[in-house]
Amino acid sequence: MEGGAGGVEETGGTGGVEETGAVQPVGSHTEEGKTREVAARADLEWWRQFGLQWNGVSMMRALVEAEEPHVVLVSDASESWGCGAAGGDRWFQLSWSFTGEVCDWGIMPKEMLPIVIAAAVWGSRWRGLTMKARCDNAAVVATVRSGSCKKRHTMHFRRCLAYLEAMGEFVLVADHIRGVDNVVADALSRDNVSLAHSVMQEAREDAEVIPPSLLALLTASDAVWSEREWSVLHGFTSHKV
Known about the structure:
Number of strands: 5
Distance between the termini: 34 Å
Shape: globular
CATH topology: Nucleotidyltransferase, domain 5
């Protein structure tokens, strides 16, 4: 199966021997086979890019989940306006009008996006810590926990998240929260900042700025894993934004 940190999805009969005994190349003839080949190549590219950046030791010490999370993040996405997330005294929101084709990707990628943005923008502050992402979409929680999803764009974001975890040296876990209890993130996703601030009184007045280069990378419609793009993504884990 596909892993969040580059595991390769089991291909079943793809690339195996048909009843006739003829060996079929991976990804031939069927759309399913082609999809699996693309996923496998993306996973291999994940590891290649990680290998280019990894210092050989630092990731290992972080991949131990703490009994209690050091940081709690709440996030949400609405179909109508956008998405948002908050952790500690920091928060951000993003309108779908700035995300191009993400509007057409369905609710799961929309729910994943603010978690990935938070990891990219705030990940340098989580070095050595365990961060719990609380989300009211059960399918997204399952994807974060398992590291796998059959939906291409959602899996694209899961790979980004795994990369940020590995390079940022933090552990991210997911927990489900009822929609009625996700007040702050829901308000941010609907552009109701006053409501969010009334609940999150310790929050900073101004939203965190999302770098345009990060947003362009995460919302690229073709989700290409090139060296240039990965280098940009790694840069957000290397310093405080």
